[in-house]
Write a structure and sequence with these properties.
Elements: E1 6-16, E2 19-27, E3 35-36, E4 40-47, E5 50-52, E6 57-61, E7 64-66, H1 68-72, E8 78-79, E9 85-90, E10 98-108, E11 137-145
Antiparallel strand pairs: 1-2, 2-9, 3-8, 4-5, 4-10, 6-7, 6-9, 10-11
Length: 146
C-alpha cells in the first residue's frame, strides 16, 4: 500500500453490461489496528469541484458492498489495516480520461478516546485536533485515468 490515504492503484471507471456507471478508488485505514464498520463516519467526495454525497458511494470491504446506512449498524465486519477499502462511486458516464482532483474525508470513533473529542467529528472538515492516525482529516490527491 502507498503512504497516501487515497491510493493511486485501482482508480478507474466502472463498467456494468457495457455501460460506464461510475468510477472507483481505494482508501487505506490510517490507524494501527482495524475498525468495525459501525465506527466509520464517511464524508462527501469532491471530484474536480463536484460534490458527490455519501448516498452515491458504496464501500467494498472484504469483497462485500456496504452503503453508509448499512455500515452504521454493522458491528461485526472489521476493516483491517492491511487491506484497502474500495469506494465505488455512482456517476453515469464515469470520469473522462486524464487527471482528476479527489478530496475525501472519513473518520471513525475509538472506544478509548474521550467522547468529548469525538462528539463533533465531521468527516468533511479538518478536526480542531489534527490526528491523522485516527482518520480525522480530509484527504486530497490528484489521480489519473488512462
Amino acid at each position: 500500500m502507498e503512504r497516501e490515504i487515497i491510493q493511486s492503484v485501482g482508480f478507474r471507471n466502472t463498467v456494468v453490461n457495457g455501460e460506464t456507471v461510475g468510477f472507483q478508488f481505494k482508501v487505506r485505514l490510517p490507524y494501527y489496528r482495524g475498525v468495525f464498520l459501525s465506527q466509520l463516519r464517511p464524508g462527501t467526495l469532491i471530484v474536480d469541484g463536484e460534490k458527490i454525497g455519501k448516498e452515491n458511494i458504496l464501500w467494498n470491504v472484504k469483497g462485500e458492498d456496504y452503503t453508509w446506512e448499512e455500515m452504521a449498524s454493522d458491528y461485526n465486519t472489521q476493516w483491517d489495516v492491511t487491506a484497502p477499502a474500495v469506494l465505488k462511486v455512482k456517476k453515469p458516464g464515469g470520469l473522462s480520461q486524464g487527471y482528476h482532483d479527489l478530496t475525501y474525508g472519513f473518520c471513525f470513533t475509538s472506544s478509548y478516546m474521550p467522547p468529548i473529542t469525538q462528539d463533533n467529528l465531521d468527516p468533511d472538515s479538518e478536526s480542531m485536533i489534527f490526528m491523522p492516525e485516527f482518520g480525522h482529516h480530509v484527504n486530497s490527491r490528484r489521480m489519473i485515468i488512462v
